[in-house]
Predict the structure.
Amino acid sequence: MKMSRLLTWPLIILWNALFWTYDRATWQYDLMVIAILAFVWLTPPTWLGDPTASGPGLVGWLLTLIN
Amino acid sequence: MTFTGAIGALCMFPLSALISVSVALRVHPNVLTFVGVLINVLAALALALGRFALAGTIMIVANVFDFIDGKVAEQLELRSAFGGFWDSVMDRFSDISLFIGLIYLYAQLGRTDYVMITALTMMFSVLTSYTRARAESVIVKCKVGFMERPERIVLFMIGAFTNRMAAVLWVICVLSILTVADRIIYTWRELNHDPIGTIT
């Protein structure tokens, strides 16, 4: 595969994620869902200043464990 | 079958039974739509009181009605232009009610930042539907962008059940802005005979 093609891949992925044309129940849709759920569940609520959430969240819990 | 496809198929089992009952009782689909909205208003009230788990449970019930109305209309052969219009208007009513519930909650907590984020999310959620409806009056189809109503509703439920509403609001807000932008760009390109799509 050409180097230029390899370099343009991230841009193509970014473009297709931003300009979304995929249907539901496709693997691209599944990937997006996983990314969203990861953000929602893994981001420590304090990072977002969540007014109602309690607990550090999974990432916060892991960081506490490491430290 | 994909992961989300499998979840959709699994959810269809209990829904099929409810559709059959509604068809057997010949419940008018417009009534189902309206009942769904009324239940959604209760969910908004639960959100306003900060009772997220309760709100999530009520939202599930409300959206069952919202989902089955179209299927019941189809099976009873009651599909009509007014039914479609009524459904769309009631959907907006339900969506905005939920956002108002959250705005009230955050205002009560003195969190102006989240009042603004929720208001912005509400604005772009309504614009998501409006841009598509308006675009499809000038072009054939405008089904681009990720954050449509089903995604929004499921995310709302996830936020309510797992008490991660702030993260959910950020996701809905950012992806709704992108969806509106996608639809504006798509419509502009279509009208200028310069179609745009997925790059492979």
